Amino acid sequence: MKGLKVAYGGINAVKGIDFTVEAGEMVTLIGANGAGKSTTLKALTGLVRPAAGRVCYNGSDVTALPSHRLVVLGIALVPEGRGVFPRLTVAENLAMGAYSRNDAPAIRADRDHVFTLFPRLAERQRQTAGTLSGGEQQMLAIGRAMMSRPRLLLLDEPSMGLAPLMVQKIFETIRAIAAAGVTILLVEQNAKLALETCSRGYVMESGTITLCDTAAALLANPQVRHAYLGE
Questions:
Q1: Per-residue pLDDT tens digits for 40-60
Q2: pLDDT cut 90: percent of the chain above it
Q3: Do the Cβ atoms of 170 and 162 come closer than 8 Å?
Q4: Model-level pTM?
Q5: Which of 10, 65, 77, 160 is the most buried (most CB within 10 A)?
Q6: Minimal CA–CA distance to 1: which of 31, 34, 28, 40?
Q7: How far is CA 218 from the centre of its chain?
């Protein structure tokens, strides 16, 4: 992203930010509520149109592309609040994740891989998504995104509202996905967990990037420790 600005009405939610995520990296974007993190992910995925700036992916300017084209190119979003289709079954939600594909044998193999990552989804594949627990819905949201075979996976607040044991399971899976070669950009309120998971981080405040460093350096930064780690 270069010089990215996003405005809602007269409010500047994102104020000209620059950042980069290299192939194979795990990068986190941390900050307080209202800092502009989710808006940044929406701009990256074509859900909101930037007022200025560019989004480049794999060497190409994709700023003006619609969301469905970005999915085909390999960008997938796990949205804040999970966004599962509540009246569809688990299996049907996963099939929706593969809507842009027509390679049926590979789709079945990817669904089986999702069930390997999340065995609980295999047990509940005929259950409607709206009847799942919050943690199971988060598993489903990640699994649905993986069905598009992303090269870049964007995760927006994956730990929100989940019990600690479920958060641990979700983040173990995120690390496994990254280890398999998927690039990850993570927005997460739990700054300590995010920085312990990722290799680099950006700190966002009031629509601007105020810090960028290795995750280890940000964990040791007194400003970050006071503002985001409760120390």
A1: 999 999 999 999 999 999 999
A2: 94
A3: yes
A4: 0.94
A5: 77
A6: 40
A7: 20
Alpha helices in the chain (DSSP H): 37-44, 67-73, 90-97, 104-117, 119-123, 134-146, 164-179, 191-197, 215-220, 222-228
> What pLDDT does residue 22 have?
97
Q: CA 181 to CA 13: how far, in whole Å?
A: 32
CA dihedral 201, 205, 209, 215 (to 10 degrees): -10
Q: Using CA atoms, how far apart are residues 218 and 25, in angstroms rounded to an integer?
A: 16
The amino acid at 60: S
Residue 11 is inside which H or E element, if any? strand 11-17
pLDDT tens for residues 92-125? 999 999 999 999 999 999 999 999 999 999 999 9
- d(CA 186, CA 168) in angstroms, rounded, equals 15
Residue type, 210: T
Distance of CA 10 to the CA centre of its chain: 27
* Count, residues in the chain: 231
Q: What is the DSSP letter of 152?
A: E
Is the Cβ–Cβ distance between 205 and 35 less than 8 Å?
Answer: yes
pLDDT of 8 reads 87
Query: Which backbone phi and psi does 159 adopt, to 5 degrees?
Result: -95, 0
Considering the chain, what is the average pLDDT of its residues? Answer: 95
